Amino acid sequence: MLAAATTIAALLIANPSNTDADRIAANGGFLIGNAHRCGLDTDRVVRAGQLVRELIAAATADSKDEDAANQRFAQFFIVSAVPEEGKTKVVASCKVVASELTKLEQRQLELVGTSGDIKSATPRFRLEDGE
After folding, report:
1. Alpha carbon separation from 22 to 6, 32, 120, 130 (Å, rounded)
2. At what angle are helices 42-59 and 94-111 packed, to 10 degrees?
């Protein structure tokens, strides 16, 4: 547990989250990696990972920032997804991870209806609105 926690702490110190995309990437990588480690349903983990990547894309201004955030996501995913050999105690309990993954899924369902349309009291954005 100590080595995994130390690795995560080192990632956070070496590359602090300066932007929303960085925070989304770090938190998402940690959650999705732990969901994978816990053996949660693969479809759920994949969908959540895709959601995190979409959030990263939405939070970045250009492809360079998006690539950096995706790399950060991958780093946190890898550190969180692979349990340390010989260690029975982990950084995040599977019960908490499952609960947080469910919360993320529920937030997505609140934003997107079953038809895939974004629910909003205001009309959709149109290209000519910003011009």
Report:
1. 19, 15, 27, 27
2. 60
Identity of residue 94: C
Six token digits for residue 19? 């932007």
Going by C-alpha positions, the residue among 53, 62, 64 that lies closest to residue 25 is 53
Coil vs helix vs strand at 117: coil
Distance between CA 33 and CA 55 in Å, rounded?
17
CA distance 34 to 110: 24
Q: Indicate yes or no: pTM above 0.90.
A: no
Q: What is the pLDDT of residues 86-112, one digit of tens each?
A: 666 667 889 999 999 999 988 876 665
**CA-CA distances (angstroms) from residue 93 to 18, 42, 53?**
27, 18, 24
